[in-house]
């Protein structure tokens, strides 16, 4: 080989090596993973799903971040409309022949999903489904461990439905759902329980057979729907249904009038999510219905990119479709392929044949997809969904707001930390923008409203004990019935208020059975309502609807009275309470001491021995209670105190006289039977209305045995007077009527046993009960109810001067403490002024005497001053007798202690000055004082 040919040889060797390397890399790169997809390629949903799967696979295969050199390949298979078993074999074929690692199924029924899930369990192939299981996620995961549900729990959707019902205060609903062999009652049971928590209940369940099993769908569905006409509720919840079944359902319902005024329809997400793909004819058939749709964000860049790809492919492959935008089913299937692709990437260099590991990778997904956040718990989506509430109007639908278990209802959504949250969440929906069926402008009542051809049938008690409440008479001439009484008049007033919004055709029908039997007739559906004096009981509220009570209710014991006119030794003390007597005595004693103190100095009638002074002061003060005193008062301060005291005495004596007179003249009605314990001990016979619940209450609750039925209110006095019964048990409204007519003979004894009140009755869930309750409240507030009571239950003339309680209350200190305070304060102020005046005058007189006569240069102590005040207060007039003045005193050597002797008498300072002024007229006194000095 020449040297020139050597480079050519090297070139060919390198080229061959490069070729082998490329072939090897290509072999690695071309490793494919098969995916199976069983969808309805002829339906709108199937077309969207196919387009979305193709886009997801293409995006993954061309993604530069795919470093595992693995490609995805999809094998599409069409579902069989005629046989579910055929889909089963199709899935088996995909696993055995195509070796698929995952199967995406687009079936819309749980029956088909469960069959394919069994294959996934046996073959250990992940099965991705978009149907919400009727079982709990835990049970589904246990039974089908390889089933991956791209849906969340149905509990959120059920709560959303119940919240809508509660927002509009609908009380009864009818649930409609399409049945299949794999469904169970768990979802319906959860809905029933949830509605009960919102104050509503399921009146009826309409189960439609699976559409594929019907030979004549229109006729069979029509026969089912016609049965709903016999039900009262007009709120329909379509819990689950295929589009084909729903089409016939709405068509037949509209033809027979179930989608007219006052009707409401709610479509669950299983049906509402499908309505993007139906034609406008179907949408127009559900005019005014509300729908619950799964919400997804449309403003994100990823969605807009996907939307552009989707519309381009969808329009090219399905040019006959008018609507080319993707729906929730396309988004969910796209996210499912994305979750599978991420799981494949997560395997790294590991073999994709490890199906268990692949399934676990899928279930550990955690990313935000086009349909929302994707993460799994127990094989189902864990992130709670956000629902969009829509209203079907015209050929399309409009959004009303959003609902989520976290924020309730909201009109606006915002994004926070990647999570959609509601703004200004609320528990109720706004109804101002809703277009209801029949172009109704208000919220539908959701109930069959009475008409002239089908009026409201109202039961009226035909056999009553107290006819002032309800009375049914038959007119002999015309054989017509006449209804009267307090309850009848009240119902007529209610109708006047209801007529402002709508008319209420009705017919009265008397019922001559007992009250419990009458209530049972409403439960059975014979009567739509009861107008009468029906007591609200807890047990009855479970089966019927009560209005707002128009009268209080409770059970009382009425017994004959005995008049107690016996004179009691201490009756004179009863007009005042003990505290009142103590306060009165304290004020009078205090006034007595003040009067004595201020009069003792200047009034000779208050002088003398101590016992005489005390007697005079007491006599003066307490005699003011009965007559004017004879003692004269000299001090102005005393006069002020006495005037206020006399006013206090006047008020007290007037009040005492009135109270004592009332106690002595008004008869005190005392019950002949004190309490129910005496009835039990003696096993005495009692009477009650046997047609009411009272008889059972006395036996079961109060444990009384001897009970006599009293059928008429006029029989109670006869039975009580004859002694056949010792007590009568009457409800409070009847007791008030009875005592108004027989107030002088009977009183209430023992406690009251409270109940819910008297009210009208309607069938459970009837919206008329709410309207009538509002009308009763209006009549209560405007005084109409009081006027009716005064008209029917006027007080007997014989009861005007009788105190039913038999007791006049004693006067308490609380009514007079202000007057006591004024009297005490006046006495205290006058006393202080008097003492001040006394001290000031005494010090002035005493200071003048000592300064001018005895020792002008000597300071006196406080004790000396006080002693001087006391000496001044104890004497009538401050005088000094100088008949025995010693020489020492005259010489200014001090006053002898004998000056305190009774032999010394004070004279006025003026007189003393005259004595010691050295004038001739007092020379004799000077001589005497000189002689005394000599002594």
From TrEMBL:
Main location: membrane
Keyword field contains DNA-binding: no
Keywords assigned by UniProt, alphabetized: Glycoprotein, Ion channel, Ion transport, Ligand-gated ion channel, Membrane, Receptor, Signal, Transmembrane, Transmembrane helix, Transport
Pfam families registered for this protein in UniProt: ANF_receptor (PF01094), Lig_chan (PF00060), Lig_chan-Glu_bd (PF10613)
Membrane topology value: Multi-pass membrane protein
Residue ranges annotated for the Ionotropic glutamate receptor C-terminal domain, each copy included: 457-795
Residue intervals passing through the bilayer: 578-598, 640-658, 817-836
Signal sequence region: 1-27
InterPro entries, per database record: ANF_lig-bd_rcpt, GABAb_receptor_plant_PBP1, Glu/Gly-bd, Ionotropic_Glu_rcpt, Iontro_rcpt_C, Iontropic_Glu_rcpt_pln, Peripla_BP_I
Domain of life according to the entry: Eukaryota
Keyword ATP-binding appears in the UniProt entry: no
SUPFAM superfamilies attached to this UniProt entry: Periplasmic binding protein-like I, Periplasmic binding protein-like II
PANTHER family xref list: IONOTROPIC GLUTAMATE RECEPTOR
Family membership: Belongs to the glutamate-gated ion channel (TC 1.A.10.1) family.
Role description: Glutamate-gated receptor that probably acts as non-selective cation channel.
Record protein name field: Glutamate receptor
């Amino acid at each position: 080989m020449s040297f020139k040919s050597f480079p050519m040889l090297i070139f060919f060797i390198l080229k061959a090596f490069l070729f082998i390397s490329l072939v090897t890399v290509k072999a690695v790169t071309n490793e494919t993973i098969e995916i199976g997809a069983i969808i309805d390629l002829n339906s709108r949903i199937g077309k969207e799903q196919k387009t979305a799967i193709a886009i997801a696979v293409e995006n993954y295969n061309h993604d530069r971040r795919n470093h595992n050199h693995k490609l995805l390949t999809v094998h599409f298979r069409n579902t069989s409309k005629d046989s579910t078993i055929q889909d089963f074999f199709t899935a088996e074929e995909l696993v055995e022949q195509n070796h698929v690692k995952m199967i995406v199924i687009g079936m819309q029924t749980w029956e088909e999903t469960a069959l394919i899930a069994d294959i996934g369990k046996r073959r250990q192939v992940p099965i991705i489904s978009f149907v919400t299981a009727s079982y709990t996620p835990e049970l589904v995961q246990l039974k089908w461990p390889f089933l991956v549900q791209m849906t969340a729990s149905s509990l959120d959707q059920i709560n959303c439905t119940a919240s809508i019902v509660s927002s509009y205060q609908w009380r009864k609903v009818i649930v409609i759902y399409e049945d299949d062999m794999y469904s169970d009652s768990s979802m319906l049971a959860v809905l029933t329980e949830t509605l009960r928590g919102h104050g509503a209940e399921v009146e009826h369940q309409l189960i439609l057979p699976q559409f594929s099993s019907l030979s004549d769908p229109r006729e069979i569905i029509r026969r089912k729907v016609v049965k709903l006409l016999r039900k009262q509720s007009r709120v329909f919840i379509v819990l689950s249904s295929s589009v084909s079944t729903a089409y016939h359902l709405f068509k037949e319902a509209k033809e027979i009038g179930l989608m007219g005024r006052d009707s409401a329809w709610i479509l669950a997400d299983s049906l509402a999510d499908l309505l993007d793909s139906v034609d406008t004819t179907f949408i127009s058939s559900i005019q005014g219905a509300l729908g619950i749709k799964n919400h997804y964000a449309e403003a994100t860049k990823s969605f807009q990119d996907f939307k552009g790809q989707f519309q381009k492919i969808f329009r090219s492959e399905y040019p006959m479709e008018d609507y080319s935008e993707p729906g929730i089913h396309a988004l969910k299937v796209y996210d499912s392929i994305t979750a599978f692709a991420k799981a494949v990437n997560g395997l790294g260099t590991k073999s994709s044949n490890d199906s268990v590991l692949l399934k676990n990778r899928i279930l550990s997904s955690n990313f935000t997809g086009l349909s929302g956040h994707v993460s799994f718990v127990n094989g189902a989506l864990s992130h709670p969904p956000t629902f969009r509430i829509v209203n079907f109007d015209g050929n399309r639908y409009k959004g009303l707001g959003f609902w989520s278990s976290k924020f309730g209802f909201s009109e606006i959504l915002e994004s926070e930390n990647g999570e959609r949250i509601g703004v200004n969440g609320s528990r109720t929906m706004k109804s101002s923008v809703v277009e209801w069926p029949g172009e109704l402008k208000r919220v539908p009542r959701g109930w069959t409203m009475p008409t002239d051809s089908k009026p409201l049938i109202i039961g009226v008690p035909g056999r009553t004990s107290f006819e002032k409440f309800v009375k049914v008479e038959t007119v002999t001439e015309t054989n017509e019935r006449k209804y009267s009484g307090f309850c009848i008049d009240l119902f007529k007033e209610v109708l006047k208020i209801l007529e402002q919004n709508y008319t209420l055709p009705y017919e009265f029908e008397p019922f001559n059975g007992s009250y419990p039997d009458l209530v049972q007739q409403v439960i059975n559906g014979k009567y739509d309502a009861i107008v009468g004096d029906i007591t609200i009981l807890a047990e009855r509220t479970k089966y019927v609807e009560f209005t707002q009570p128009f009268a209080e209710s409770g059970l009382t014991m009425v017994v004959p009275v005995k008049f107690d006119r016996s004179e009691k030794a201490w009756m004179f003390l009863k007009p005042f309470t003990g505290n009142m007597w103590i306060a009165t005595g304290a004020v009078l004693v205090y006034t007595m001491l003040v009067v004595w103190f201020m009069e003792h100095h200047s009034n000779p009638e208050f002088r003398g021995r101590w016992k005489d002074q005390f007697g005079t002061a007491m006599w003066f003060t307490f005699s003011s209670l009965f007559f004017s005193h004879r003692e004269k008062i000299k001090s102005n301060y005393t006069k002020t105190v006495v005037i206020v005291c006399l006013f206090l005495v006047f008020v007290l004596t007037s009040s005492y006289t009135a109270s004592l007179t009332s106690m002595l003249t008004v008869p005190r009605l005392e019950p002949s039977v004190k309490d129910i314990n005496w009835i039990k001990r003696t096993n005495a016979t009692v009477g009650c209305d046997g047609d009411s619940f009272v008889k059972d209450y006395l036996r079961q609750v109060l444990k009384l045995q001897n009970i006599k039925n009293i059928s008429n209110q006029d029989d109670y006095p006869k039975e009580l007077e004859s002694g056949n019964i010792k007590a009568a048990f009457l409800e409070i409204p009847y007791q008030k009527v009875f005592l108004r007519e027989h107030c002088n003979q009977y009183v209430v004894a023992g406690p009251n046993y409270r109940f819910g009140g008297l009210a009208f009755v309607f069938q459970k869930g009837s919206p008329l009960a709410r309207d009538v309750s509002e009308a009763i409240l209006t009549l209560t507030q405007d005084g109409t109810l009081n006027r009716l009571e005064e008209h029917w239950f006027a007080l007997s003339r014989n009861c005007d001067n009788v105190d039913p309680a038999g007791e006049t209350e004693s006067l308490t200190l609380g009514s007079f403490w202000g007057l006591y305070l004024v009297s005490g304060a006046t006495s205290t102020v006058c006393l202080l002024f008097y003492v001040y005046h006394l001290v000031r005058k005494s010090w002035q007189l005493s200071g003048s005497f000592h300064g001018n006569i005895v020792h002008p240069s000597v300071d006196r102590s406080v004790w000396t001053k006080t002693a001087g005040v006391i000496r001044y207060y104890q004497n009538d007039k401050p005088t000094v007798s100088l008949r025995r003045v010693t020489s020492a005193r005259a010489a200014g050597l001090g006053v002898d202690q004998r000056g305190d002797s009774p032999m010394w008498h004070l004279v006025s300072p003026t007189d003393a000055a005259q004595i010691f002024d050295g004038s001739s007229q007092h020379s004799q006194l000077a001589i005497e004082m000189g002689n005394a000095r000599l002594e």
